[in-house]
Design goal:
By secondary structure, the protein is of the alpha+beta class. The chain folds into 4 domains: 10-139, no CATH class; 157-472, 3-Layer(aba) Sandwich (Rossmann fold), CATH 3.40.50.200; 476-561, Immunoglobulins (Immunoglobulin-like); 569-734, Immunoglobulins (Immunoglobulin-like), CATH 2.60.40. The chain contains 9 helices and 41 strands. The chain has a 6-stranded parallel sheet with strand order 10-9-11-14-15-16, sandwiched between helices. Strands 23-22-25-26-41 form a 5-stranded antiparallel sheet, with no helix packed on it. It has a 4-stranded antiparallel sheet with strand order 1-2-5-4. A hairpin with a 2-residue loop joins strand 1 and strand 2 (15-19).
């Protein structure tokens, strides 16, 4: 490959860097007739990952194989797909999304855009797929023009009350549905933010110069979408469904040269939004057919699917237009990509219904994957062709239309209803609903579609009916008592307090918590005791159900350690603190509440109370004589049990202790260290059994970090280095709550 140097330099013993071809940004397939762009996701087993400037591998042989592969397929250039998002940022996003969702989220740093000569893409794809290093390889999506909108009769009917419209005019009497507190982002080619009925700040273009508006499709399509959602309620022009929402836009085109990259733009958004915000995808993909109108939802493209799923896992609601190809998404031609049993992007997919009949329009995608419908014709809004006002080239700021349509029109109608519900929840102090919950609510309360024999596009949302359901039918369920990070000992008594409120609606049908322990399932009601007399892992599930059959469920897992009497009591560390000495120890959890006597040189120096998890902490005065302070021995006595003797030592200290769901992250510092190295960390169970050891690295200042997880026994720790052993001033308790999700929640539709 003349002119391209993929071999990098070795930056450490285990890391090599593959420089990216220093050329303008890669164009999408079709932009340069001489090239084609592929999207490639490297497999985890290949240990390959991209960032802004390089492809990285755990070993140099892995890069050798990539170099050979790229040479074989004739690669012109390669670059990370998610431009503007660093490897570290992408990894953090994927981990956060996985933690929040409980499922594995694709790391978008695994995706690369590879440019090859036109006409070679089929062979290149075969080579990539058969390389053993690639999890997915496919053609990059191409930029498609916005759907052509037919001319229909005017009327802003979508704002009317059901069954005509979605009831957005309800906001005149209920201001909490007007979008306050919710950010809506439209993935769009072009829009006029200075339109007289929008007046958006420059910051509303969220692309930050990485993703720029594409003026080749300067047809005011985006301005029309913005107007449906967010046009000012100012007494002239039109009014948006959620005029008080924070409206933003991002283009799927990359700077400095046009490169169509919707997955990258969606990834760019991920850390700039919060749970309960909304992303509207006003794009469609080139589907499986050969025709010029081969339009399907954007998630047809795998990279876009992964980026959409990541947003959903982060709690951001994605509304996706269904596309104007007229396809049945359940047909074999769709290859099962819109079958939720095969894969689920968590997006709300929208079809286009007739503004009068609510039947599917001829051009709309349809099928089981379509969740809801919006107006597909007769939409009055800002921008577009200007058939109402301002059709001239210099009249963008005053342009209005009565003929905006397609799934492009249906998308913002549904996104507006979604934002209205989310703004009400936020205004009333309730947590946001996720996409599945919103679909369940809006489908159960919406205006049914007509002519189902023409294909499923779902009901038309009804905002007042949805809010009435939230107000009158969904009970608020609170669970108090055991909480995040609470520790408790063997056979201790804790209580689950479960309170069910009904508000103005009907009584709650059921409200319960279940314990799944070693001896089977136990139903708990308000005031029942949490079982702590059965060692092991237990799971509590709280469920609320109303008379409509809507449910909300949440769980918490906790671990109970066994009672133990192997040592009775152990002194873990004695730390000098000037004229004071701090002691840290542990006793059998059955000793909780008892007094521990502190002996110094055999004489009583103070007392401390054993905590519920068996820990003992105390600070006593040091001997007045400085000569006696270093060599004085200390002991703990609980009942008839005496601990090991121990002298004060400042050889190691704890800098910070961060509690995690199932462990603690300890940051410490060794004294007298001048170069980096390793030490052996030994964990000694108080309840008996073998000690465990592992190696821990520290830097040249002696600073180290170590994750210490919870088991079913109280443990103390020591550090062995250079033949000596010193205590680590840390005690891990016998039991602790391990929570994956919150344990206080509001009932929501399921």
């Amino acid at each position: 490959m003349p002119g391209i140097r993929f071999r990098g330099i070795l930056v450490s013993a285990a890391l090599a860097v593959l420089p990216v071809f220093a050329a303008p940004a890669v164009s999408s397939a079709g932009d340069d007739p001489g090239t084609s762009v592929l999207e490639v996701r490297f497999s985890q087993s290949a240990s390959l990952r991209g960032d802004e400037a390089s492809l990285r591998a755990a070993t140099e042989p892995a890069l050798d194989r990539v170099e050979q592969l790229f040479e074989r397929i004739g690669t012109i250039s390669a670059e990370p797909l998610a431009a503007g998002v660093s490897q570290a940022e992408s990894t953090a996003l994927a981990r956060r999304a996985s933690r929040l969702s409980g499922a594995m989220t694709t790391n978008m740093a695994d995706w690369y855009r590879v440019e090859v000569p036109a006409g070679t893409e089929a062979d290149a794809l075969d080579a990539l797929r058969n390389s053993g290093q690639v999890a997915y390889a496919g053609r990059a999506p191409v930029a498609l023009p916005p759907p052509v909108t037919p001319d229909f009769s005017p009327g802003q009917l979508h704002l009317d009350m059901a069954p005509t419209g979605i009831g957005a005019e309800y906001g005149e009497t209920e201001p909490r549905v007007r979008g306050g507190g919710v950010t809506v982002v439209d993935l769009e080619y072009y829009w006029t933010r200075t339109h007289e009925d929008l007046q958006l700040p420059a910051s509303s273009d969220i692309g930050g110069g990485e993703y720029v508006q594409y003026t080749a499709f300067d047809d005011e399509h985006g301005t029309a979408v913005f107007g449906i959602l967010n046009a000012d309620d100012n007494g002239f022009g039109v009014t948006g469904i959620v005029p008080e929402a924070t409206m933003k836009g991002i283009s799927p085109t990359m700077a400095p040269d046009f490169g169509y990259n919707p997955a990258g733009a969606l990834t760019y958004l991920a850390d700039k939004l919060s749970p309960g915000d909304v992303v509207l995808i006003e794009q469609q993909a080139d589907g499986p057919g050969p025709g010029p109108s081969d339009y399907v939802p954007m998630e047809w493209n795998q990279a876009s699917f992964d980026a959409i799923r990541q947003l959903g896992d982060l709690g951001i609601v994605v509304v996706e237009t269904g596309g104007n190809g007229g396809y049945d998404l359940d047909s074999p031609a769709m290859l099962g990509r819109f079958n939720r049993a095969n894969r689920d992007s968590e997006a709300i997919v929208v079809g286009a219904g007739d503004s009068v009949t609510h039947a599917p329009l001829w051009f709309t995608s349809h099928g089981s994957r379509i969740d809801l419908q919006g107006y597909g014709n007769n939409l009055v809004t800002t921008g577009s062709n200007g058939d109402l006002q301002g059709p001239g080239p210099g009249e963008k700021d005053i342009r209005y239309t009565s003929s905006f349509d397609g799934t492009s029109g249906a998308g913002p109608v549904v996104a507006g209803a979604v934002a209205a519900v989310l703004s009400y929840l936020k205004a009333t102090g309730q947590p946001p609903l996720d996409a599945d919950q919103l679909v369940g609510l809006l489908r159960s309360t919406g205006t049914p579609q007509a002519s189902p024999e023409l294909g499923q596009i779902g009901p038309l949302p009804d905002i007042p009916a949805a809010i009435a359901t939230i107000q009158g039918s969904l009970p608020t369920v609170s669970i108090t008592g055991p909480g995040d990070g609470l520790t408790f000992d063997f056979n201790s008594a804790h209580f689950l307090g479960l309170t069910c409120g009904t508000g103005a609606g009907p009584d709650l049908e059921s409200c319960l918590a279940r314990d799944q322990g070693p001896d089977g399932e136990t139903n708990l009601v308000t005031g029942d005791r949490l079982p702590t007399d059965q060692p092991g892992t237990h799971t509590l599930t709280a469920t609320a159900t109303n008379e409509l059959g809507l449910t909300a469920t949440d769980t918490v897992t906790y671990e109970v350690g066994p009672g133990c009497f192997a040592d009775g009591v152990r002194l873990a560390s004695v730390q000098p603190r000037g004229a004071k000495v701090k002691l840290l120890g542990a006793a059998d959890p059955s000793s909780a509440g008892r007094q521990a006597r502190i002996l110094r040189a055999g004489k009583r120096a103070g007392t401390a109370t054993v905590t519920g998890d068996g820990r003992i902490e105390a600070t006593v005065s040091a001997p007045k004589s400085k000569r006696l302070r270093p060599g004085t021995r200390y002991r703990l006595v609980v009942g008839g049990s005496r601990s090991n003797p121990m002298k004060p030592s400042g050889a190691v200290r704890v800098l910070s202790r961060k509690p995690l769901p199932d462990a603690d992250l300890i940051k410490g510092k060794l004294a007298g260290v001048r170069k980096q190295g390793r030490f052996t960390l030994r964990a000694r169970p108080l309840c008996g059994g073998p000690a465990t050891s592992r190696q821990v690295s520290f830097n040249r200042s002696g600073v180290f970090s170590v994750r210490i997880g919870f088991t079913s026994a109280t443990r103390t720790f020591s550090i062995r280095r250079s033949g000596g052993e010193v205590p680590l001033p840390v005690v891990m308790p016998a039991a602790r709550f391990i929570t994956g999700r919150r344990f206080i929640f509001d009932a929501a539709p399921g």
